[in-house]
Amino acid sequence: MAQQDEIIQSKYTQFVERVAATKLVWGLRSKTGWANTESAEDEEVSVVPFWSERAYAKICARDDWKSFSPAEIPLNIFLEDWCTGMDENDTLVGTNWDANMLGKEVDAAEVVLDILNRLKAINSAIKFSNYSSLDDFIKEISED
Questions:
Q1: How far is 12 from 22, CA to CA, in rounded Å?
Q2: Distance from C-alpha of 37 to C-alpha of 125, rounded to nearest angstrom
Q3: Straight-line distance from the first to the last Cα atom of the chain, in angstroms, rounded to the nearest whole number
Q4: Would you give per-residue pLDDT tens digits along the chain (144 residues)?
Q5: pLDDT at 123
Q6: Distances (CA, A) of 66 to 30, 35, 63, 99
Q7: Where are the domains of the chain?
Q8: Closest CA to 28 of 2, 3, 53
């Protein structure tokens, strides 16, 4: 079990690093909306999966999601719109799930902070609609 936890954590770290570098996030979308499911931990909690690579998302477009296709989301929109909305709705972010739907389920605010801190660490600029800077966004999320 510890090895599985290490793999899941490693895939989460890869997600944060890659989306900070590319400034893109991938989801699965169909004509009816975005792929989502219930949490492995609590079936009352919803999870929306996202990937750092189009290919990773495509691998999961099968079974219940066979009518879904990878769709890119600009990182600023993912952070400002998706994650803040998911945080308000207590919806978790699934990151870099594999074909067996194995991956980390994370509070949306934690994902935002991890990505913003990674952007700061690599000194990468990003424009937000609702925040004047990375630090402003970090401060706002940290206070919630």
A1: 15
A2: 33
A3: 33
A4: 577 889 899 999 999 999 999 999 999 999 999 999 999 889 999 999 999 999 999 999 999 999 999 999 999 999 999 999 999 999 999 999 998 888 999 999 999 999 999 999 999 989 999 999 889 999 988 886
A5: 93
A6: 9, 10, 5, 12
A7: 2-143
A8: 53
CA–CA separation, 56 vs 6, rounded Å?
19
β-sheet with 46-50: strand ranges across: 37-38, 46-50, 92-95, 104-107
Q: What is the spatial distance between Cα 115 and Cα 80, in angstroms, rounded to a whole number?
A: 12
Decide: helix, strand or coil at residue 107. Answer: strand
Q: Are 60 and 97 in contact (CB under 8 A)?
A: yes
Evaluate whether 129 touches 80 at the Cβ level (below 8 Å): yes
